[in-house]
Amino acid sequence: MARLSGGQRQAIAVARTVSSEADILLLDEPLAAMGAKEGGMILDLIARLKQEGNVSIIMILHNYVHVFQACDRVSLIQDGVISLDKPTSETSVEELTEIVVEEYRRARMAASGNGAGATGDDSQRAR
Length: 127
Fold this sequence. Notes:
About 45% of the residues lie in helices and about 20% in strands. The chain contains five helices and four strands. The chain starts with 5 loop residues before the first helix and ends in an 8-residue tail after the last helix. It has two domains: about 1-60, no CATH class; about 70-125, no CATH class. It is globular, with a radius of gyration of 19 Å.
């Protein structure tokens, strides 16, 4: 019996979920561990489901390229707070990157004990 790779097993799991004919699908990193071939097949399947319009799909993705390939809308959630929510047609990879980098910078500043980074007020920086 042939052994399946992690990506192939993931593709089968996503396909099985999609074939359930649910009204809403929640896909957590559906393309993780997949090669280009399997990932492309899943993106094609998601695109077909979107065209048919019979299902709402919520995906958790960390790859911005996949966001723009597969999604109509993008939301960024930082520490449980929605920091961005808009149609993908109204945003860009650059905007998403800028928001994520700024949140990361603030978190690092706060973790280092310099609260100025968390509030954006550099006047309180230790000298």
